[in-house]
Fold this protein.
Amino acid sequence: MYYNNIDIDSLPTPAYVMEERLLRKNLELLKYIADESGLNILMALKGFALWKSFPIVKEYLIGTSASGLHEALLGYEEFGGAVHTYSPAFNLNEIERIAEISSDIIFNSFNQLEKHYEFVKTINPDISVGVRLNPQYSSTEVDLYNPCSPYSRLGMVQSEFLKQIDRHIDKIDGFHIHGLCEQGVEDLEPLFEAFENQFGTYFPQLKWINLGGGHLITREGYDVQRLIRFVKRFYEKYPNIKLYIEPSEAIGWETGFLVSEVLDIVHNGIDIGVLNTSAETHMPDTLAMPYCPNVVGDTPDGKFSYRFAGNSCLAGDIIGDYRFSEELKVGDKIVFKDMIHYTMVKNTTFNGLPLPSIVIVKESGEIEVVRAFGYLDYKNRLS
């Protein structure tokens, strides 16, 4: 079996397989936008952290954004450049190291700003300080992924912001918001409008604004030129403010796949293919979002239908229903498309299931098994 000219039968299973040529394609588009508009693009490690690929990524992007100490360390050690670190609340035993290695730090509340500001500036006088705001607007439909949903803990709403901003504005270099999830510039524009209407009075006193992640720029049909026009309009109005975004899925989008193997086929009203991969452990967003990942060979008019299920004891470890033109058999390889972003960063060893190997297909065509996981990876994280 071949997919994208890759011999699938030569790969270990299960395995995440990332193609360098597809990664570079995404990065070239992001660099084009940055060059045309002046937009500063960071890579959010929360969604894509395959650090063996960072030598390619840092040819195109200026740095990383982190959600805590470990991501900040990964960006600092393996990527370099800017490191923007935000957390809903910083741990006291981590804040010193975060301050040392971060170029920018974003506080979630004025309580956090007051608690840590003097300390982080003492540790790193050059660190740039920002706060996260919540414009209470988002067109994200899934509440689990909507940071602006009612009662969200993420960022200060306008009423809380206005109570204390005049006491703190001299400490603040930037504002950060986040309100998108795999969305386009047509969703960014009303989000920014709500943000500007509520907090724009203070924009002229800032050095930077970060519009967060969720910008699925590399998806087919994204209006790239409209984004460029949006950024240019921003700079016409605010020429002294640097504008950042921090996508993650846009970097890893459609750069690779998860290859699995049929271990058994059981029948209970329908044919169920039990695989050596798992929705619960290896592609958790299929249950959390939820969504049904695309599979190579699936066709609407296929004669043979199967439900794919994971090899765990969780009853709901169901990946999805698929149809094929030919009957499946034990040992067949199954390729789940677009499984590089928000997979490796979120997977688990529930039930002691082995983590998928990590494979990189080089631009030369060479296949490199970067990492294979075994029993000790499971054992050592538990005690």
Notes: The radius of gyration is 22 Å. The domain at 38-252 is CATH 3.20.20.10 (TIM Barrel).
